[in-house]
Amino acid sequence: MDEHGAMILGEKSSGGACGIRVSSVGGIEVRNSAASSCTVTEDGDTVDNGCPVDVELTTDGENPYENFYDLDNLSKAMNEYFDGTKD
């Protein structure tokens, strides 16, 4: 998302960029088809294996998503990213 001046915070997604479609013909035949379309980057690479993040927020421990609700941490990460001071 850098090329759009945006950042992605959170956790790398599990993927699933290739759609699964369910269709029927006259309500008689039902068909499932996978990967009939797929989301790709400008370079033609698939994002089906997950979208990378600029700042990983998950942690080890009892609640791996606690940083998703820490507004001070989120603000710090965004400020560092947009100020160019991200490690």
Detailed description of the structure:
By secondary structure, the protein is α+β, with helices and mostly antiparallel strands. It has one domain. It has 1 helix and 4 strands; from the N terminus they run ββββα. It has one helix spanning 71-83, and strands spanning 9-10, 18-25, 29-38, 55-56. The chain has a two-stranded parallel sheet. Strands 2-3 form a two-stranded antiparallel ribbon. Strand 2 and strand 3 form a beta hairpin. The longest helix is centred in the C-terminal third of the chain and has 13 residues, at 71-83. It is elongated and about 55 Å long. The mean pLDDT is 78.
Please estimate the helix content.
10-25%
Shape: elongated
Uncertain residue segments: none
Tell me the Rg in angstroms.
Answer: 19 Å
Question: How many discrete structural domains?
Answer: 1
Attribute tags:
single chain; 87 residues; alpha+beta; two-stranded parallel ribbon; two-stranded antiparallel sheet; 4 strands
Mind sketching the topology for me?
Layout: E1 9-10, E2 18-25, E3 29-38, E4 55-56, H1 71-83
Parallel strand pairs: 1-4
Antiparallel strand pairs: 2-3
Quick overview of this protein structure:
This protein is α+β, with helices and mostly antiparallel strands and 87 residues long. It has one helix spanning 71-83; strands spanning 9-10, 18-25, 29-38, 55-56.
